[in-house]
Amino acid sequence: MTVKPVFRYDMTIEEIGGAGNQYIESVWKTLYDSMLDELTIAFREIEDAAYGRYLDQLMPALFDSLEDAGFEATEPLKENDFVIGKCLLFRNSLEKWGTEENRSRIFWNVIRSKNSQQPIGTLLTEIPHSHLKFDIPMAPVLYSLKECERDQIVRGIRRIKE
Fold it and tell me: Measured between alpha carbons, how far is 59 from 96 in angstroms, rounded to an integer?
């Protein structure tokens, strides 16, 4: 049975973050364990890109469920965009925290109502990871922000992490 998060069109950004975290908490470790050997080998060749392969398996169910509930999590792609996990854009991420063994990269997605195109807030996805070997030391975590502009989002991330 495939586990999927449950979202409704009337949810707040905080409720979306909560439901998304319940989903991640329920599947991340089983998925990690099932992919560990493959991604440990991949890490030796492609380094951090191995984490992208993991997120490519973890995150699409979350973004598909958001779409099914009437939300958009993507923005128009630019020519050099690098997308993982269906909707995570590298240009919308920061990696500034932690040691080489436990770094933290945070991606952000402005979440909009499909009907009105109005933003309801920003969903942050934090992926803890090692630069020394393939290791995700704890569950990825979602945070929610009311802010929707890039500068405000970056300030919001710093508030959470510092």
Answer: 22
pTM above 0.85, yes or no: yes
Strand (E) or helix (H) holding 79: none
**Encoding tokens for residue 106?**
């945070």
Question: Are 95 and 117 within 8 A, CB to CB?
Answer: no
| Predicted pLDDT at 162 | 87
The four Cα atoms 58, 76, 107, 62 give a dihedral, to 10 degrees, of -30
| Spatial separation of the C-alpha atoms in residues 80 and 76, rounded to whole Å | 12
The DSSP output letter for 70 is T
Locus of tokens 């495939």: 2
Task: With beta carbons less than 8 A apart as the criterion, state whether 2 and 20 touch.
Answer: no
